[in-house]
Amino acid sequence: MAILWPILSIYMLLLGVIFVSFYRLMESLAQKNPIWRENGQSFVLSVTRLLERLLDYRNVIQGDENRDKRMSCTVNLLNFYQSEVNRHEMYLRYIYKLHDLHIPADNYAEAGFTLKLHADQLAWSNRTLHSDLRYPTQKEWQRKELLYLKILDYLDKGKQWEAAIPLTKELADFYERRIYDYQKLSGILKRQAQYFEKIISNSQEELRLDPEYYRVGFYGQGFPLFVRVSWG
Question: Which residues cross the membrane (predicted)?
Answer without folding.
Answer: 6-26
